[in-house]
# Entry
Amino acid sequence: QVQLVESGGGLVQVGGSLRLSCAASGFTFRSYTMSWYRQALGKERELVAFVSSGGSTFYVDSVKGRFTISRDNVQNTVYLQMNSLKPEDTALYYCKVRKDALDYWGQGTQVTVSS
# Structure
């Protein structure tokens, strides 16, 4: 029932911007913390940002000041605005929700930052 569908990835130059979207369905979206993770080739998947049901946000140090997570509880969508992109931001980006002790993941959207 839970479904997460990411979109918005692509190829951008260093210093460019992208906005990722994650469309959620199958659960009461407004009640859950939503997270963005990323996984670069050959590296561990890492938490990038999350936004709680109350609107509290967290960012990993490497993206602070450049990325902004937000949510639209009417459209059941979580966003990741990515500015001042760097080559090290290149990764497959995933949306995630933890519901009833289970993690649900989207299919991922690829972000590639060229130098």
